[in-house]
Amino acid sequence: MPGVASVAGLPATIQTRDAAALEAVGVSIGTQAAGWVTAWVPYDKLEAIGEIPGVTYITTGDLVYPTLDKALADIGYDAVWNSSVLPMPYTGKGVIVGVVDIGFQWDHAAFRRADGSTRIAVAWNQNDSTGTPPDGYAYGSLFDTEEKILAAHPCVVETHATHVASIAAGSSFEGNPYGGVARDAELVLVDALHTPDGGIYTEGIVDGINFICDYAAGVGKPCVINLSIGGTSGPHDGTSPFDQMCDSLQGAGQLLVGSMGNMGAYNYHLGYDFDKQPKSFRTGFRQQRLVLPEVDMWSDAPVRFAIEIYGYNDTMPKATTGMLSVAEGWRDTVLLYEDKEILIEAASAYSEANGLYNTLFSMSGVTDIPGAFFVLAVEGERGRIDMWNNAPANTFDDFGRDDWLSGDREMSLMEVGGTGRRITSVGAYVTNTSVAVQNGGTYSVAYTLHAVAPFSSRGFTRDGRMKPEVIAPGCIVTAAFNEVLASDPSNFFYGMTAGEFPFGDKLYYYGANSGTSMASPIVAGVYALWLEACPMLTPEEAKAVLRSVSTTDEYTADPSNAGYGKINPYAGLCYLLQVGGVEVTPAAQRAKLYPSVGRGEFAIMPTVDADDAVIEIYNMSGRQVYGSRIGRCTAGVPVSVAMPDSPGGVYIVRLQSRHWSEVFKYVVRGGEVGINSL
User: Fold this and answer.
1) By three-state DSSP, how is residue 583 classified?
2) 35 φψ region: left (φ > 0), alpha (ψ -120 to 50), beta (else)
């Protein structure tokens, strides 16, 4: 992007064994994690980096998008302030709340103290080229003084970041009912590298996470970082370069929270098994907007595909590319239809991280064909294929034909916030259905109060892990708005602005919005309260707390859209502090772990049947040391596990089925082992 860095180029994520060789040819290295680096690559160096022996994979410019009034009352927030059982009120004091997003109004009252000073400890606008980047990065401007922060210009593209950050940790003043969760936390905010239309580069997100973690470590404080953003492309199994890097960056006192996405109402996913079904299938694209289809396919074996154009009453296509085979690499094809040209660009690669073949294609040119629609035909020899489209622009549809397939709403979670192994992924439920907005209007939805929001994306992941882990209020939530958009009558957000709040000599805006983007920062704020009580809380321990204390009701029976249940901040604090005042009823244990004679050998016995079961073992730094897909398990039949040679210490053992999971601590001490259920 012009103006982002001093050298014209683009962001990239690179798998390499030799970062120094990249720097030697003029590439600027940012974050290094899990064998990957984020980098700023000058355009004239793109070809050169592919020739470096230590470089094994390059992906450039992946884009993702941004996806408190009654909400806080619904989660029992008052109890964390006014409890006779807790030793003190919990407000996030001494904790860093980080937000990586776009759309900040840096001087908003939601980020101020009562005396007018800012609660933002430091900020990084990755899109501003007028100042100096943070140490170790090649782009953006660092705001490291109050003067710089309060003088920074607000984003003109979005209000999303302002809204999200104020939900997680917005200030509360007399007469303003829209305070956030962690009201005394310090804020570290990153306006992520983005395109003019609001697409966010994943490299900027990773660098933002690393920047926040480094700052928190430097000042000796725990941190929680919110990602209310997501993208449709990726394996949806936690093995993307982004997820690997994020898993590596988390640890004790460093937590990530992300939104599941808002694809729950769309036929965004399609799964197919060539071993059990015919060797080919067709599905149509129902275009919700005048945007051409994009599809990301992940399969056990290579596949071929064709793009076809059908009339609504046709039995044969009007035009077709014929079956296309994309070996590892890239190709383009032109589909001719009457006097129109449609360009199909496709790329394919084999992923060593998950053993799958990835085929991705996009189309450009004609956006609308009167009386006709696009069809995808796929051929394969064996195994399973899962694919995701660019909903809500396009969804998979059978157009009423018995021999074609529709997509489904399962596995509709989005990459970035919803798929990682260590990140806590959050779905949304309904706490409000109507809000009065300025000029006498109303923002309302026809949803069921307290139910999971219909838009909230569903799990599980492609590799069978439960997502989301928890749900939180995401409809309708009122919080801070960016003044640039809220005060402009021609802007969409003007019609969602709920009111103004005077602070000092200026008016600040608050508005209503819905989405898992609003639910995620509520959980991030709650995690800040929990980190105040337990600063070394790990991602795995935080999820164990969710499993033990989340609220369940008639709307949380399906773990694929509700996880463990609804967030309960007070019960979590009581659990962590081991104090009374809340009755925590442990869930019935669905598996038991029995150590055997010898080092690192044990058996897991499920007490209920389990489908698509996976056993995973992690060390306390979060690195996976063992993994095995064991398929169906029968209640009462033990499954033996022999760990690879591992040093003494504490390990996390997880048995994950399609509908539930059990987590244990496994202690290895010089040949002796012990078990603690989490």
Assistant:
1) coil
2) left
User: Is the confidence at residue 99, as pLDDT, over 50?
Assistant: yes
- In the DSSP assignment, the letter for residue 48 is H
Q: Are 212 and 95 in contact (CB under 8 A)?
A: no
Q: What is the mean pLDDT of residues 162-188?
A: 93
| CATH superfamily of the 65-264+415-577 domain | Peptidase S8/S53 domain (3.40.50.200)
Asked whether 256 and 394 are in contact (CB, 8 A), the reply is no
Residue pLDDT, tens place only, 531-559: 999 999 999 999 999 998 999 999 998 99
Spatial distance between the Cα atoms of 13 and 105, rounded to a whole number of angstroms = 29
Letter for the amino acid at 135? Answer: D
Q: Which CATH architecture has domain 269-397?
A: Sandwich (2.60)
- Residues 349 and 358: beta-carbon distance below 8 Å: yes
What integer is the mean pLDDT of 495-511? 90
- Comparing CA positions, the residue from 640, 642, 629 lying closest to residue 605 is 640
Q: Decide if 334 contacts 343 (C-beta within 8 A).
A: yes
In 18-111, DSSP assigns E strands to 28-33, 36-42, 55-60, 63-66, 96-101
The three-class DSSP label of residue 350 is strand
H or E stretch at 19: helix 19-24
Query: Which span out of 95-99, 287-291, 388-392, 609-613 was modeled with the highest average pLDDT?
Result: 95-99
CATH 3.40.50.720 fits 591-677, yes or no: no
Closest to 90 (Cα-Cα) out of 530, 581, 473: 530
- Which pLDDT does position 674 carry in this prediction? 37
Do residues 71 and 239 touch, judged by C-beta distance below 8 A?
Answer: no
413: amino acid identity, one letter: L
The answer to whether 294 and 463 are in contact (CB under 8 A) is: no
**DSSP alpha helix (H) spans, 126-240:** 146-151, 160-169, 202-219
Is residue 583 pLDDT above 50, yes or no?
Answer: no
Whether 412 contacts 235, CB under 8 Å: no
Cβ contact 185:96 at 8 Å: yes
Q: Per-domain residue ranges for the chain?
A: 9-61, 65-264+415-577, 269-397, 591-677
pLDDT value for 451: 97
pLDDT value of position 495 = 86
pTM for this entry? 0.82
Pairing of strands 639-642, 601-606: antiparallel
Q: CA 336, CA 351: separation in Å to the nearest integer? A: 33
User: What are 51-67's pLDDT values in tens digits?
Assistant: 888 888 787 766 655 54
CB atoms within 10 A of CB 636: 10
Q: What is the pLDDT of residues 203-248, one digit of tens each?
A: 999 999 999 999 999 999 999 999 999 999 999 999 999 999 999 9
Q: With H, G, I as helix, E, B as strand and everything else as coil, classify residue 647.
A: coil
Instruction: Identify the CATH class of 9-61.
Output: alpha beta
Helix (H/G/I), strand (E/B), else coil: 565: coil
Question: CA 18 to CA 20: how far, in whole Å?
Answer: 5
Yes or no: say if 112 and 172 are a contact pair by the CB < 8 Å rule: no
